[in-house]
Design a protein that fits this description.
783 residues; alpha/beta; OB fold (Dihydrolipoamide Acetyltransferase, E2P); eight-stranded mixed β-sheet; seven-stranded mixed β-sheet; 29 helices; 52% helix
Length: 783
């Protein structure tokens, strides 16, 4: 079922949906006909074994068991192919319904829509977004009832409403021009984008259970905020009700860097933690089977609604419901069959779940625990049983999710296993005590404060574990792409087969692993060791800057962190960087500093350098908060200062003072640094524009360099004389492709060529690595 929905975009459009559905119907009928039918009720044991007094032994040996086995395999194969065709057809029908939705056909037109919010409005800078399930649409004097979804895109302050609320929105419908964004919406079952001009809340959810859940969620949220300090309140809100709006950014980065990010939001495991005390209460009250079933099923459904029906919670909720039904009917099923039924049922109801990363991770983690938790815990008999069970569950879940994590996020910290084992005993107490404290706080604030004091212990323990292990000196597994996913799944399946078989590892394999271990360590040491000369690695971060400087003496300096919160931190992990002597934020613009807080969260840093000029940049404030949280000193160098980092010399050329009144004071305030070892020089210019360059030209001799990081991504904000004064052999342009600014501009490229500079671009070559041989720069590409 899963595979059919995934491959549908590649093969489904070649054949009409009805053909896939009819083919699947014929296939399932054929599989049913081919399946062998055995009726053993009226046969004795000898006959069921193929032996009877009237049947010669020779005939028994030639009994049709082999034919029956062959027909069973054939029936199974036909059934699998038929289900694949059914999934392709079902996914195609759903896609066509979204593409042909009324709101998609109306675009572009001004409309007024009414419906309920599927998610809380999310604000980013001066924009906000949300998903609206539309019930009514009005346009040009006409109106229609519908059941479709639109993506709301607004400016300024977000709509004052929460998921489930009924809202009225006016604006212009449109189909996204960006093909990638359009594909993103289609995979979420969203028909169109609505650019909001006005929005208002009409009231709470119309459906009573959702309205009750909204009320409970609001009351619990207020009680949590009132009962706990901000850091712990944000953590508990995410852990208990899936509200990440108050999550402390520093806590979030630490949890992600240590592999505990799944604790930041409500997940499938929360369902089990909530149901455990419910069943304990029902047992204490000696409730009979039906009341226990009703109580458990009702609590599960209410918790799913309360937490916003996150994919992982839906998966756990459906599994819990199926398990309860099985117990009620006296026909319990294995966890594997329950997981399979839950996945198939959810994919049938909502095929877009197949593309949900949260759903994929939840299913992969659950499958890993079902298949491997017990075999792993049985093989670690040298530790106490509770620790063995926790270790088995953690390793099993990690084996399941690692291929998916590498495919999407390109990194997995090895510290995650240790972090999860250490966090395991504190998660349930933190959640349950936190919820009890919140509930008690609603009834009587002093009682809530008393329980909250106890709940602070496990929560602060979790925060401490994440903080300590975020910068643990352990390597990261890095990768990405389809090959990593396929190889990762193959390895996971191989481990599953071996561990469940109970076999010991062959001696030959053990000897081979021991023999290859020194080679792997040696290779890793070579790849992460010091280079033979000054080396500047210009990381491809899109439209932004990030440069890693390394020296033969072991100095490591990072200049800027790019516009993405994770790309640079992931790249440094892949390169084996374990410490940064200096981190430079040339100026406070997002395309230079957004990635630096994640670097500080996971890698020890000696000092942070930034201009220290007046700025209202929220991104810079986030960086400074991260530096304070990690205990990293911040310095504000000025032109004329020299900083020595081992054998690496950093001469600060600018700014001598903060700029005021230019077209971009922040760009002109950029730290301009000459990095050098002996005669080998690299000039790093940030986004310095013409006013800053004019001052630099007053000392042209100080600017001569072998390698130039082109100012402002190759924009037309430089002076031709600047490139002539630098006289660089290599000019590196760090820019994204495509980008709305037209960088690098034809004018800037012409100035570089006129100055005799060889132009190298990250948007064409991926990472650009520049080293030195015999005093001349040597360029290599990671592409």
């Amino acid at each position: 079922m899963w595979a059919g929905l995934l491959v549908r975009p590649f093969v489904g459009e070649a054949v009409p949906v009805v053909v896939w559905v009819v083919a699947s119907a014929f296939g399932l009928a054929a599989a049913l006909a081919l399946a062998p039918v055995r009726d053993d009720r009226d046969r004795g044991a000898l006959e069921r074994a193929g032996l009877s007094p009237t049947q010669p032994l020779a005939d028994a040996v030639a009994s049709p068991r082999t034919d029956r086995s062959r027909s069973s395999w054939l029936a199974a194969a036909v059934a699998v192919l038929a289900t694949l065709a059914l999934a392709i057809g079902w996914g195609g029908a759903h896609t066509h319904r979204v593409e042909e939705a009324l709101v998609a056909r109306l675009a572009p037109v001004s409309v007024v829509v009414e419906g309920s919010l599927r998610v809380d409005p999310r604000a980013e800078a001066d924009r906000w977004s949300a998903v609206l399930d539309v019930a009514l649409v009005r346009w040009s004097g006409r109106a229609a009832a519908t059941h479709e979804s639109v993506w709301l895109s607004g400016r300024d302050e977000p709509l004052d409403a929460v998921r489930g609320d009924r809202v009225r929105v006016s604006g212009t419908l449109g189909v996204p021009e960006d093909a990638g964004f359009g594909e993103f919406l289609l995979r979420r079952g969203i028909a169109a984008e609505l650019r909001v001009s006005e929005a208002e809340r009409l009231g709470p959810a119309a459906f009573a259970p959702i309205r009750w859940a909204q009320t409970v969620r609001a009351m619990v949220g207020r009680s949590i905020v009132a009962s706990y300090p901000p850091r712990e309140a944000g953590l508990l809100l995410g852990l208990a009700v899936g509200d990440a709006s108050r999550l402390d950014p520093i806590v979030e980065r630490d949890f992600r860097a240590s592999g505990l990010s799944h604790l930041l939001v409500v997940s499938g495991g929360n369902v089990a933690m909530v149901l455990a005390p419910v069943f304990a209460l029902s047992a204490a009250l000696r409730l009979s089977r039906w009341p226990r079933f009703a109580l458990g099923l009702g609590m599960t459904a209410f918790f799913v609604v309360l937490t916003g029906a996150e994919p992982s919670v839906m998966r756990a909720g459906v599994m819990a419901g199926l398990a309860l039904v099985g117990v009620l009917l006296g026909r319990p099923r294995s966890s594997a069959s329950i997981l399979s039924a839950a996945v198939v049922g959810l994919l049938a109801l909502d095929p877009t779940l197949v593309w949900s990363v949260g759903f994929q991770l939840s299913v992969a983690a659950t499958a890993g625990m079902i298949a491997l938790a017990t075999p792993i815990s049985e093989r670690v008999r040298f530790v106490p049983k509770p620790v063995a069970m926790a270790l088995g569950a953690t390793l099993a879940a990690q084996i399941g999710v690692t291929p998916v994590l590498l495919f999407y996020f390109h990194e997995v910290p090895l510290s995650t296993v240790l972090a999860n084992v250490l966090a395991f005993p504190a998660v349930a107490p933190a959640l349950l005590l936190g919820l009890v404290a919140a509930g008690a706080g609603v009834l009587a604030e002093p009682a809530g404060d008393a329980v909250a004091f106890l709940a602070l212990v496990p929560m602060r323990y979790l925060i401490g574990v994440a903080d300590e292990l975020a910068r643990a000196p352990l390597p990261w597994i890095t990768g990405g792409g389809w090959l990593t996913l396929v190889l990762g799944i193959a390895v996971a399946l191989g481990l599953t087969w071996w561990l469940r078989s109970g076999r010991r590892a062959p001696r030959t394999a053990l000897v081979l692993c021991l023999a290859l271990a020194p080679l792997a360590v040696w290779t890793n040491a070579l790849s992460s060791g010091a280079p033979g000369s000054l080396t500047a690695r210009f990381l491809d971060v899109g439209q932004g800057d990030a440069i890693l400087l390394t020296s033969p003496g072991g100095a490591t300096v990072l200049v800027d962190g790019g516009p993405d919160p994770a790309i640079v931190a992931t790249a440094l992990s892949a390169l084996g960087v374990r410490r940064l002597d200096v981190v430079v934020a040339t100026h406070p613009h997002a395309d230079h500093v957004v990635g630096l807080p994640a670097v500080l969260a996971r890698i020890p840093v000696g000092v942070v350098l930034e201009p220290g000029c007046p700025s209202d940049s929220r991104d810079l404030e986030t960086l400074l908060e991260a530096a304070r949280a990690e205990g990293v000193p911040v310095r504000h160098p000025r032109g004329g200062q020299t900083i020595s980092v081992g054998d690496l010399r950093l001469d600060v050329l600018a700014p001598e003072a903060c700029w005021v009144g230019t077209e971009s004071d922040a760009n002109n305030d950029s730290l301009v640094i000459m990095a050098s070892i002996g005669e080998d020089t690299v000039l790093l210019t940030g986004d310095a524009e013409q006013p800053a360059q004019e001052l630099l030209l007053e000392r042209p001799g100080a600017m001569v360099a072998d390698v130039l990081k082109v100012p402002h991504h190759g924009g037309a904000t430089s002076l031709p004389e600047f490139f002539e004064a630098v006289r660089a052999e290599v000019c590196v342009v760090s820019s994204g492709q495509p980008n709305p600014y037209g960088h690098p501009t034809p004018e800037a490229l012409g100035w570089m060529r006129d100055a005799g500079c060889a132009i190298v671009r990250t948007d064409r070559l991926d990472d650009v690595i520049v080293g030195f041989e015999r005093g001349r720069p040597v360029v290599a590409s990671a592409a």
